[in-house]
Design a protein that fits this description.
The structure holds 2 protein chains of 2 kinds. By secondary structure, chain A is mainly β. In chain A, the strands form 2 sheets. Chain A has a 6-stranded mixed sheet with strand order 2-10-9-4-5-6, with no helix packed on it. A 4-stranded antiparallel sheet of chain A has the order 1-3-8-7, with no helix packed on it. In chain A, strand 5 and strand 6 form a beta hairpin. Chain B is about 0% helix and about 50% strand. In chain B, a hairpin with a 3-residue loop joins strand 5 and strand 6. The chains are: A mainly beta, B mainly beta. At the A-B interface, strand 5 of A face strand 4, strand 5, strand 9 and strand 10 of B.
Chain lengths: ~110, ~110
């Protein structure tokens, strides 16, 4: 079965760092782009960026460039989304998905609050 | 940059009726790069349609997609109670590599 399994919910304080993960299985993870998608409370889907795990080629949405870092470790079929300094406005559910959007992770809820 | 605009924002219908959801692209985009996604409250998005008109695995034939120029349409026939959800169109192409419409909420009337 092709699936993406994300890490669990996180509660953080403003200014803290965070990395969430997305592990693929059942397909050739290295040869498929992985996208990250944000959904703020009560809002729509926003594409953040994507990575090609095979060579770590990365593309960011201009809205997220410089605010997050996308990385991957093809040896363990895992992609990551990282923040160096969280803000309250980063509170959202974050989804990973194959770039074709045919397979989605279950989502990771990130809550940033003092 | 291609922008997708969905209409209506909310659609209120009864079970058994037919829903017609629209997605307009700000410039020409091949239908091969357009898809539709369903999302229910508290759930991850679920792919419905890709390449404008091809149903994803397991999607009933009540769901159909079509394309005409920069207009893309999702039609849901014989609405079932489980069809009431939010629907997003999405494109993946050159610039940006991926984008979503703002969504249409399909409500039970």
């Amino acid at each position: 079965e092709v699936q993406l399994v994300q890490s669990g919910a996180e509660v953080k304080k403003p200014g803290e760092s965070l990395t969430i993960s997305c592990k693929g299985s059942g397909y050739n993870f290295a040869n498929n782009w992985i996208s990250w998608v944000r959904q703020m409370p009560g809002k729509g889907l926003e594409w953040m960026g994507r990575i090609y795990p095979g060579d770590s080629d990365t593309t960011y949405s201009p809205s997220f460039q410089g605010h997050v870092t996308i990385s991957a470790d093809k040896s363990i079929s895992t992609a990551y989304l990282q923040w160096d300094s969280l803000k309250a406005s980063d509170t959202a559910v974050y989804y990973c998905a194959r770039h074709s959007l045919d397979v989605w992770g279950q989502g990771t809820t990130v809550t940033v609050s003092s | 940059e291609i922008v997708l605009t969905q209409s209506p924002g909310t659609l209120s219908l009864s079970p058994g009726e037919t829903a017609t959801l629209s997605c307009r692209a700000s410039q020409y985009i091949s239908g091969g790069y357009i898809g539709w996604i369903q999302q229910k409250p508290g759930q991850a998005p679920r792919p419905l349609i890709y390449a404008a008109s091809t149903r994803a695995a397991g999607i009933p034939d009540r769901f159909s997609g079509s394309a005409s120029g920069t207009e893309f349409t999702l039609t849901i026939s014989r609405l079932e109670p489980e069809d009431f959800a939010v629907y997003y169109c999405r494109q993946f192409g050159a610039s940006p590599p991926c984008a979503f419409g703002q969504g249409t909420k399909l409500d039970i009337k």
